[in-house]
Amino acid sequence: MKITLKILYSILFLLAAFWLVAGFYMFFKEVKTELFWSAHVIGVLTVGNAFVFLLLAWGVWKRVSWVYYPGLVYLAVNVVLSLTDEIGIYDLISLVVSLVAFIFFYKIKAVILTDKKTIK
């Protein structure tokens, strides 16, 4: 189960890096004047998504019990939202990696919720 945890927080860090790059790209790319604020708002939300993934990765790494259910829900919502977007190569990558993270997150339930080292 230790390898599953390592794989999971590595995937979560990968997702965080992906969304951080995407967020900064949205924030700093040149856009038409009428789309200026919407692009910046999307960039800020995307960077926020990256920070949530960093929080989840930290929680898995430290085996924080309260992170399990919100993390599972957050990953499920991320998968569903990836399906509702226009499916391009980056959306497909995000979808597959988020789905793999969801499956690994589901598999660690026993470790995260019953581990003696769990921070409450």
What is the topology?
Blueprint: H1 2-28, H2 36-62, H3 68-84, H4 89-107, H5 109-114
**Form type:** elongated
Give the distance, in angstroms, between the N- and C-terminal Cα atoms: 21 Å
Mean pLDDT comes to 85
Which structural class fits the helix and strand makeup? Answer: mainly alpha
Number of domains: 1
**H/E element order:** HHHHH
Largest sheet descriptor: none
Low-confidence stretches: none
Fraction of residues in H or I helices = over 70%
Radius of gyration: 16 Å
Please give the number of β-strands: 0
Continuous helix count: 5
- Approximate strand percentage: under 5%
Identify the quaternary structure here. single chain
Describe the structure in brief.
With 120 residues, the chain is mainly α. The protein has five helices and no strands.
3D structure, described in words:
With 120 residues, the chain is mostly helical. It has one domain. The chain contains 5 helices and no strands. The chain has helices at 2-28, 36-62, 68-84, 89-107, 109-114. Helix 1 (2-28) runs antiparallel to helix 2, helix 1 (2-28) packs antiparallel against helix 4 and helix 3 runs antiparallel to helix 4 (89-107). The longest helix is centred in the first third of the chain and has 27 residues, at 2-28. The two termini are 21 Å apart.
